[in-house]
């Protein structure tokens, strides 16, 4: 039973990783096709990382589950 559960978690994790890569590629294409420069995209990425950092520092916020997912 534990092996099946672990396998299902591995599959779900792999699917989520693939979805993240697809979202990142789509976002990159969307930004570049709308005229955003590499510098703009770096700035955008930095803002995302800052938001994530802030949410990890304040796990009592609504983003608590996000922080738990990332840290586990």
From TrEMBL:
Stated name of the protein: Uncharacterized protein
Organism: Melittangium boletus DSM 14713
């Amino acid at each position: 039973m534990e092996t099946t559960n672990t396998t299902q978690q591995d599959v779900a994790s792999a699917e989520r990783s693939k979805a993240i890569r697809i979202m990142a590629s789509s976002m990159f294409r969307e930004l570049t096709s709308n005229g955003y420069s590499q510098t703009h995209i770096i700035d955008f990425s930095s803002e995302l990382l800052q938001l994530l950092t802030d949410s990890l520092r304040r796990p009592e916020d609504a983003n608590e589950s996000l922080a738990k997912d990332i840290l586990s």
